[in-house]
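Recall the central idea of this unit: under ordinary conditions, the amino acid sequence of a chain determines the structure it adopts. In this exercise we apply that idea directly, starting from the sequence alone.
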Amino acid sequence: MLRTRSIHGVLLTLSLLIIAAAAHAQSGTTPIGSVWDRYYEALALRGDIERPYMTIRQLSRNAWEIPESLEHPWQDHRGPQGSTARSGAWSARSLGVESYSSYNSRYASGGNDGAMWQGRGFNTRLQGGVHGNYEQGDHRLGVTLYPVFWVAENREFELVDPDDITGTNVLFGDPVYGYYSRTVDLPQRHGPDPIYEVGWGESEVRYDYGPLSAGFGNQALWLGPGRQNSLILSNNAGGFPKVDLGLRKTEVSILERNLGTLEAIAFWGRLTPSDYFDTTNYDDHNLYTGVAIGYSLPFWPEFTLGFNKVAITQWSDIDANALIQHFRTEIRGYRGDGGQQASLSGDFFSPATGTNIYVEWGRYDFSRGKHWIHVPGWSSVYSIGGRQVFDLGPRRFALLSVEHTNLLKSRAQMLGPSDRWNSAGFYRQHNVGTGFTHRGQILGGAIGPGGHSQYVSLAYYGRQGFIDVFVQRYARNKDVLYFTGQSEEKDGTLFMLGPESDARQRVFAEMRFGIGGYLHAGAFGLGSRVTVHDTRNFNYQAGEDTWNTRVELTVNYKL
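Accordingly, the structure predicted from this sequence is:
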């Protein structure tokens, strides 16, 4: 099956590879979550360089500045980005070419991988691009062409049967491939056939005036300090077409008085459902708007406060209120068909000690009035994590990373009325139907609605690359179990009393054990990772245990 977001992308990909080969000065601009992006972040935590962002990340903001005189582990190796060719006010540079492949032996598994969907069997992705720039004084106009092509073998595997989970059903969507929980467009498998797709990837057009920035394109946005799971928005799904206005990280001063450091962005975009969601009662597209702010005090620059808020509305309901919904002061669902999510975060990033500690707390379809006092945890989720750099000398270091994320519904929600409101959860939205998704993938945390994750990683960086080991416990959508069970009727309304006695025996959970690394080899960079999934209660079937082996291979070509 062919799915294409732009047929011109095929020709564009080929032309970019030719253009990129002509570029010649190292650039520190890297895609979110790439090998080099994680490396630059570690250098910033060591105090070698400065982060170009606070809590708002995207390719155009990931412009790392690496001094030529800096001594660091990979100083003898050029990043995947090429050098820069200049002619007066004009410049161009390649952004490198990357091939990524994975293989899942038992079932679909993947996350934070953009538009790509990684099913059972073989999956591969090719991306590469070039950036052109015109700069005159404080004015900068840039064009980034960074398309993506991916393929998924998409072999058959056993799916969850909604009828096996008491109290749930496929309310919308394809009854064969659709998700097993209501009000979210999250197919378990994207159809019966192999998939290949061409898209615009991280392409965009952007104009900057000093620290002010405006852009139009598909670049992924990552909001918040989380690294494995970002509550509101990440690159777990592919980029969606949007317009954004913002302020790059900049020091704010009035009358020569430093007021701290600020960054901000507001955006308006269009989301599209997957091929496996029934849009009979819904629009083919949704309006997705958001605002994000990061701020640090002048006397405590190591600590950043963050605020993110997004709103989703059916495309046909667009009006003036919908366009400014994410700016409105009353924190409640949109008066029409839509919903909201918001989060507050704190990020302590101290190069002096090599320590990064962060927390993000989020809510959705906000309660109002006395609920803030009675049940402050209603509809809330959270993520907490940290990183620590261990300096082993100028040319080597170790990095310890931990993160815990909880996207389960609160106990108060579990005991609420058993109706369509109680069926909601983080990323699910009953009025919009598709929930907070784009083309069948969650916009935020990779673990998805009702997910629960604990992650620990230890990486060693040396002159020729890095090696890391990690362990993760991941429990899939526990809400579908805890929402089921015994209930009682009161005044015509059905209230939940609690889960079935055997619900805890059917938690669909994985222990993931992995080892990986990256090796510099001349003009190439070679990365690999092997992960073994020890899976318990597969598809919520008590005692049905299985294994999944996941193998990944990344090849970067440094033009």
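The domain at 2-557 is CATH 2.40.160.130 (Porin).
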